[in-house]
Amino acid sequence: MTSETKKPERLTRIQRENRTRIREAALEAFSRNGFRGTTLDQIATLSSLSKPNLIYYYKSKEDIYLELFVSLLDQWLEPLVALNIEGDPIEEILSYVRVKLALSRDKPRESRLFANEVLRGCPRIAWFIKKDLKNVVEEVEAKFQHWIDEGKIAAINPRHLLYSIWAVTQHYADFESQITLLQPNKHETFAEAEIYVEQLFRGILTPRNA
Amino acid sequence: MTSETKKPERLTRIQRENRTRIREAALEAFSRNGFRGTTLDQIATLSSLSKPNLIYYYKSKEDIYLELFVSLLDQWLEPLVALNIEGDPIEEILSYVRVKLALSRDKPRESRLFANEVLRGCPRIAWFIKKDLKNVVEEVEAKFQHWIDEGKIAAINPRHLLYSIWAVTQHYADFESQITLLQPNKHETFAEAEIYVEQLFRGILTPRNA
DNA sequence: GTCTATACAAAGATAGAC
DNA sequence: GTCTATCTTTGTATAGAC
User: Fold this and answer.
1) What SS3 state is found at A181?
2) What pLDDT shows up at residue A2?
3) Domain check: are A47 and A114 in the same one?
4) Contact B193 A116 (CB under 8 A)
């Protein structure tokens, strides 16, 4: 715990600003072009810094890339672990769906960054999937199963429920370019999506007895 | 119509075989690494042909890439246009869902190839989305709307229904690496998925009166 | 038709001046 | 801390022998 990593603390204002500008530029580039498709020149141009200066702040291209995942994964896991087993099951789940859809609307680049990595077989974040994400997923699955056992939601496969929530919500970020080409008005798309996804998941979650 | 393109006809057996081997190798590489991430060396190694020989058969890397999309897009559109407006609406739609899910299981590379391209903003296939796909989508939307008007399926947004079918089914191909890291048994995953997606879409399609 | 050798450009990273 | 110049590697594509 004796600060082996020197990154977070004791940075000048300029250092903090520059690192932030680099991350912003890198997110823009990596999310659109993937790791291999992104060049340090692009990041340098977008951040208005020189290429060597980038390497002064981050020791390699991969270093910048990996740092972007830290904040992304935090953001994505937080609402998942927040699922409250004491709350109303359907409202808890729908609330998670809404958060995730809002993330697709407001932070689509983060979603595309993740999709890029997974499409390639998770070469750089497999460690995270196997440990942290797997644990969280199993906890969530247990909560869903608990609600199923109590008859509060329909008897469905809890894991695939989670997959389909991810799939449907992230689709609006990851396939944004396709959607835009088919239907140019982004605001309208998300307004419709909010209504639709609620119907979709309410439809499968609602128990079929009463 | 006077054969300007010399590709299809009049090829020797060796030429046909080599072109096929190149396409197979290119699909493997492009689907995993994207356009920029794929090198001619990789394709050459995978196809057991020399790099210059590749360029003998296809005039450029991009040429190989584009040809892969032709067969992919055919495959994807065919079951969409086959939606029969005379058939039972819910069964017609569920049947399309099953076909699409089977494509994710049996041809995941094609799905990833497409996802890669769309993630990057469709730089090379925007023309196709804006013309062919847009037309097909509008036809499908009209069929869905017709069924809604007749009260045979629930009143939902037809376009987002289509998006969610794509999202959920393609997720099993595009995010296969994530799913495998979370749950190694592929066969089991698809067996569960078949049941789940049917429940999911039946849930939203079934009218809420009777 | 297929290969070896190579031209030419782009990209990641470093050296060293300021 | 930041820049110019440069090293090194890799990648697309071509030339020309066989």
Assistant:
1) helix
2) 32
3) no
4) no
Q: Does B145 touch chain A (CB under 8 A)?
A: no
* CATH number where B47 lies: 1.10.10.60
Distance CA A171, CA A179 (A): 9
Q: Does A182 touch chain B (CB under 8 A)?
A: yes
pLDDT (tens digit per residue) in A156-169: 999 999 999 999 99
pLDDT for residue B151 = 97
Residue span of the structural domain in which B31 resides: 13-59
Q: Which nucleotide across the nucleic acid strands is nearest to A14, CA versus C1'?
A: D1
Averaged pLDDT for residues A28-39: 96
Radius of gyration over every alpha carbon of chain B, rounded to an integer in angstroms: 20
Give the residues of chain B that fall short of pLDDT 50: 1-8
- Tell me: do B35 and B84 sit in the same domain: no
Give the pLDDT confidence of B10-33 residue by residue, as tens digits: 678 888 899 999 999 999 999 999
Question: Is residue B142 in a domain?
Answer: yes
How far the first Cα of chain A sits from its last, in Å, is 56
A115/B119 touch (CB, cutoff 8 Å), yes or no: yes
pLDDT at A58: 94
User: Three-class SS string for A108-151?
Assistant: HHHHHHHHHHHHCCCCCCHHHHHHHHHHHHHHHHHHHHHHHHCC
Q: Is the pLDDT of residue A3 over 50?
A: no
The torsion angles phi and psi of B169, rounded to 5 degrees, stand at: -75, -45
What residues have CB less than 8 Å from B18, skipping those under 6 apart?
Answer: B47, B49, B53, B57
Please tell me if residue B112 touches chain A, with a CB cutoff of 8 Å. yes
A41 in the same domain as A75: no
Residue A4, pLDDT above cutoff 70: no
Answer whether residue B182 is part of any domain.
yes
Q: What is the pLDDT of residue A100?
A: 98
Q: Is residue A20 part of a domain?
A: yes
Confidence (pLDDT) at B4: 33
- DSSP collapsed to 3 states, chain B: CCCCCCCCCCCCHHHHHHHHHHHHHHHHHHHHHHHHHCCHHHHHHHHCCCHHHHHHHCCCHHHHHHHHHHHHHHHHHHHHHCCCCCCCHHHHHHHHHHHHHHHHHHCHHHHHHHHHHHHCCCCCCHHHHHHHHHHHHHHHHHHHHHHHHCCCCCCCCHHHHHHHHHHHHHHHHHCHHHHHHHCCCHHHHHHHHHHHHHHHHHHHHCCCCC
